[in-house]
């Protein structure tokens, strides 16, 4: 197998689909070829190929060595490709080096965004912030989900970089809610509404959090807030059953009989018109029967 063939395997991504015995053969040849005289382009292309091959073979230490050689040669703050390699390494290993590598990736991402913003300003807005890089950073952040404290910190750092990422705001709200921090959860959901004011499901979700808090604290103001958010959700989407169910419960708690009847009427229409899934229709029917 020639050098050109190895370069082609790298370029085409064929290494990802090779049978195991061929991976071993390509790995052995790549390792031997790296000891020969090569141009910089050839050497670092083969190092990247070796990196992917060693990860596939479970040789994490050797993969880290390849990654370090590449990082030593290129400026991480100017290379999105290296950030991708770091992300791949973290996702493949998720071992004792997780904190070290992912912390470095988030730091590198922040620097890249800073440089990108400077370039964007100097070039009249022709350059965009690197969305692919942000996706890489987001994947690394997700690796911390088992450690609630660290996951929250990583999400907060990511949102410093991407404050308009509604998915991450929603994820952070769920993390806060799972740990009983309802006010922080509501704040995160409210951040989504700043950029997506017609997101009826988010209006309803805030209502649900307010409703749950009202049940725990017996605070009538929470029920009022829940009613307001559910009402807005129903206004934006009159067939959204969760909005009407929440409005029904809020109205019951506040003793608003007219709103209770309105909610029941709308839920009846959703059921009779089969405007949601069969599972949801069963749940609605059970609630209306009580």
From TrEMBL:
* Superkingdom of this protein's organism: Eukaryota
InterPro entries referenced in this protein's UniProt entry, alphabetically: EMC2-like (IPR039856), TPR-like_helical_dom_sf (IPR011990), TPR_rpt (IPR019734)
Q: Does the keyword Cell membrane apply?
A: no
Q: Which SUPFAM superfamilies does UniProt cross-reference here? A: TPR-like
Give start and end residues of every TPR repeat: 166-199
- Which UniProt keywords are given for this protein, alphabetically ordered? Endoplasmic reticulum, Membrane, TPR repeat
Compartments annotated for it: namely: Endoplasmic reticulum membrane
| The keyword Transcription appears for this protein | no
State the annotated membrane topology for this chain: Peripheral membrane protein
Main localization category: endoplasmic reticulum
Q: Which PROSITE patterns match?
A: TPR
| Gene Ontology CC terms | EMC complex
Q: What does this protein do?
A: Part of the endoplasmic reticulum membrane protein complex (EMC) that enables the energy-independent insertion into endoplasmic reticulum membranes of newly synthesized membrane proteins.
What does the annotation say about its assembly with partners?
A: Component of the ER membrane protein complex (EMC).
Q: Which PANTHER family match?
A: TETRATRICOPEPTIDE REPEAT PROTEIN
Q: Which family does it belong to?
A: Belongs to the EMC2 family.
| Official protein name in the record | ER membrane protein complex subunit 2
- Which species does the entry assign this protein to? Kuraishia capsulata CBS 1993
């Amino acid at each position: 197998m020639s050098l050109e063939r190895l370069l082609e395997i790298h370029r085409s991504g064929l290494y990802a689909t090779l049978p195991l015995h061929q991976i071993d053969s390509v790995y052995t040849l790549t390792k031997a070829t790296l000891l020969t005289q090569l141009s910089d382009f050839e050497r670092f292309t083969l190092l990247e190929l070796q990196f992917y091959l060693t990860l596939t073979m479970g040789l994490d230490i050797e993969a880290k060595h390849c990654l370090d050689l590449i990082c030593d040669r290129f400026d991480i703050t100017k290379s999105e490709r290296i950030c991708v390699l770091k992300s791949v390494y973290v996702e493949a290993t998720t071992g004792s080096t997780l904190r070290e590598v992912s912390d470095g990736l988030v730091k590198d991402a922040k620097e890249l965004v800073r440089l990108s913003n400077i370039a964007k300003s100097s070039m009249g807005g022709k350059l965009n912030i690197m969305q692919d890089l942000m996706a890489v950073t987001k994947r690394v952040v997700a690796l911390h989900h088992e450690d609630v404290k660290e996951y929250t910190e990583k999400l907060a750092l990511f949102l410093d970089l991407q404050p308009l990422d509604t998915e991450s705001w929603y994820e952070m709200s769920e993390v806060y809610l799972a740990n009983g921090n309802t006010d922080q959860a509501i704040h995160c959901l409210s951040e989504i509404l700043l950029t997506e004011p017609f997101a009826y499901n988010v209006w309803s979700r805030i209502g649900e959090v307010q409703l749950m808090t009202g049940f725990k604290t017996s605070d009538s103001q929470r029920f009022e807030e829940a009613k307001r958010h559910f009402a807005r959700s129903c206004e934006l989407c009159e067939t959204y059953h969760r909005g009407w169910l929440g409005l029904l419960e809020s109205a019951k708690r506040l003793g608003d009989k007219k709103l209770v009847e309105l909610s029941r009427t709308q839920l009846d229409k959703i059921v009779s018109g089969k405007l949601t899934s069969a599972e949801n229709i069963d749940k609605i029917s059970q609630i209306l029967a009580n």
